[in-house]
Design a protein that fits this description.
four-stranded antiparallel sheet, alpha+beta, single chain, 180 residues, Metallo-beta-lactamase, Chain A
């Protein structure tokens, strides 16, 4: 797992999966680190090693959405860090608990993506406008009904999960766009 610093507060952890790179991010806070996404399963030891190398404890585990490439190591990290806050949108938490029904205002299409079985419940369910340390929570539904983005108010960094993708062309919330 490669650690790539982006300014004073953000460190990208990148690991190449079978098909494409998968990233998660440390956001430095006064009390330690917020980990945004946990990557694929099997990443927990590498993430813990990266936090030790940064010399700061992981205080929060925040998910943009709970697909396998973003939440795969959540249970293992929670087992290693039982006091860390676990943060997920209330909407996606409902799906993780087994309720795959769609709200009337949501697109009436089957839920897509790889939804792993997670045993770790959120300690706090997030909504648009909430704060996670220096991060402003922004609801960005589309990729999943409860997808979240995190905006760092200190430096303007924006972590969007899969609300925006560039693999195999530009995609915004699952809608492919042609390159210009």
């Amino acid at each position: 797992m490669q650690a790539i610093p982006w300014g004073e507060h953000l460190v990208q952890l990148e690991r190449f999966g079978r098909l494409f790179p998968v990233s998660c991010y440390f956001v430095r806070e006064d009390d330690g680190l917020t980990l945004v996404d946990t990557g694929l399963s099997g990443n927990a030891a590498r993430i813990l090693d990266a936090a030790r190398a940064l010399g700061a404890p992981i205080r929060r585990l925040a998910l943009t959405h709970p697909h396998a490439d973003h939440a795969g190591s959540l249970d293992a990290l929670h087992a290693a860090l039982p006091d860390a806050e676990v943060l997920l949108s209330g909407r996606d938490a409902r799906i993780v608990r087994g309720d795959r029904s769609l709200d009337p205002a949501e697109p009436q299409a089957p839920l897509r993506g790889s939804w792993p079985h997670l045993t770790t419940p959120p300690t706090r369910e997030l909504r648009d406008g909430d704060r996670v340390g220096s991060l402003q929570v922004i609801a960005t539904p589309g990729h999943t009904p409860g997808s979240l983005s995190f905006f760092d108010l200190r430096d303007g960094s924006l972590l969007v999960g899969d609300a925006l993708q560039t693999r195999a062309g530009l995609a915004v919330a699952e809608t492919k766009r042609k390159s210009q």
